[in-house]
Write a structure and sequence with these properties.
alpha/beta
Length: about 400
């Protein structure tokens, strides 16, 4: 009798995962969400990200680990021992993808460079998450989120908005997470290539280049042309007036953008004379001087509460929203309806909030993934699958 259970999108794909911190683990978390069998190879004491955020009950089960390592199996094998190295080699022989973020010289010393791994599994998809493209002078330098935000111009953006000259980081691991998503599409593209040709390959995903590409998508702006026809920096994104604005009781974000919406707003609030001002009399002039429209809007919004304005903007078909905090997200009606947050019961850590994959596929069933694992929880299990007894 055939099962009616639909397979996951990339079920049957095995990933040998030697990544640490956020960049690589975010990639492999996503691959696990898509159905891959991800084996996380950790050092004694576990991935350092296990200690980011307090643990509820068990050491090495910190908050970031709980968010980033669901659906993976964890092994702790000492690769300096004969049995540990044998287990690692057997795992690589059975893996479709090997992904790590170890520096090039260190991975070669460990005997796990591309050419060595290719001998174990000729069609391996070998993914190296690097800080900097290995063709450049920074190849092999350590790279953390802060370093990459600084190196790619990200830390220079907020000063261009608020005039405070001090460079600042975006307060999240933006570079790690965006680079992780680049690694995901790189893996999926390499899988498609192998399905078509039977050929594995070496794939490099460098953080600096990934974030420089991401940042300059809009902010290269008028220096896109040679010679340049203007400066870098997407003007609308750097406009200090295009920010959340104060209402009578809190703040609101409003995105009129289309000219007709600006016209409707100022007609509604009884200020059509705004469009008689020099520089605001035509569509093109208003587009060029949009900051002045925001300045006029900011003078009007304190007259009503956020909820009152949201109702008005809804009637006018003007996009607007309240300002949520991270805490607010847990009770947001939209996110509750979509089921993004699910409360689960971990066998050792008790109840915790799992953030479900945000993307849905009609061709596959959504499955509950395994809980985040304890360090080395599956060492023996995976070794036995590979025909190895680590106890002897």
């Amino acid at each position: 009798m055939q099962s009616n259970t639909k397979p996951s999108l990339i079920s049957g794909m095995r990933v040998a995962d030697m990544t640490t911190v956020v960049f690589g683990p975010y990639c492999t978390q996503t691959l696990a969400d898509l159905g891959a069998d991800v084996i996380k190879i950790e050092p004694e004491g576990g991935d350092i990200s296990r200690n980011i955020g307090k643990s509820a009950h068990t050491p090495l089960m910190g908050a970031l680990h709980m968010r980033m390592n669901r659906g993976k199996r964890s092994v702790v094998w000492d690769l300096k021992t004969e049995s540990g190295l044998l287990a690692m080699n057997k795992l690589l022989e059975s893996s479709d993808i090997f992904i790590h973020n170890i520096r090039p010289d260190a991975i070669e010393r460990a005997g796990l460079g591309y050419e060595a791994v290719k001998k174990l599994r000729p069609d391996i998809i070998y993914v190296h998450c690097t800080g900097f493209d290995t063709r450049g002078p920074n190849a092999g330098l350590p790279a953390y989120d802060d370093i990459i935000q600084a190196a790619t111009g990200v830390a220079s953006l907020l000063p261009r908005v608020d005039g405070n000259p001090a460079p600042r980081f975006f307060p999240m691991t933006m570079a790690d997470k965006v680079s992780g998503l680049h690694a995901v599409y790189a893996v999926l593209a390499a899988i498609i290539h192998r399905m078509r040709t039977g050929e594995g390959q070496y794939v490099e995903v460098p953080m600096m280049e990934a974030i420089a590409s991401f940042t300059t998508l809009d902010h290269l702006y008028e220096k896109t042309f040679v010679p340049p026809i203007g400066p870098t920096g997407y003007a609308r994104q750097l406009d200090p007036t295009r920010q959340p604005m104060r209402t009578k009781d809190s703040y609101i974000v409003v995105a009129p953008y289309q000219d007709g919406r600006w016209l409707k707003f100022f007609e509604l609030v009884g200020r059509p004379e705004v469009f008689l001002e020099p520089g605001l009399t035509t569509l093109l002039l208003r587009r060029e001087n949009a900051h002045r429209l925001y300045e006029h809007m900011a003078l009007v919004l304190p007259e009503k509460t956020t909820e009152e304005w949201l109702e008005i903007f809804g009637q006018l078909d003007i996009p607007a929203g309240k300002i949520n905090t991270i805490d607010d997200l847990l009770d947001d009606p939209q996110l509750k309806a979509s089921g993004l947050f699910v409360e689960r019961d971990h066998p050792t850590e008790g109840k915790y909030i799992e953030v479900r994959p945000p993307v849905r596929f009609s061709a596959v069933e959504s499955k509950e993934l395994a809980h985040p694992a304890r360090a080395g929880q599956h060492s023996q299990e995976v070794a036995r699958e590979l025909g190895i007894d680590l106890e002897n």
